[in-house]
Amino acid sequence: MQKLIFGYKTKAGLLSDLKGAMQKAVVGASECSLCTITHGMTTEKPVWKEFRKTLSVPAEFYHHDQLPSRVLDFLVATSAGLPVILAEDENGLQTAVTAQQLDDCHRDERCLIGLLQPYLTSRSSTHPAE
Question: How many structural domains are present in the chain?
Answer without folding.
Answer: 1
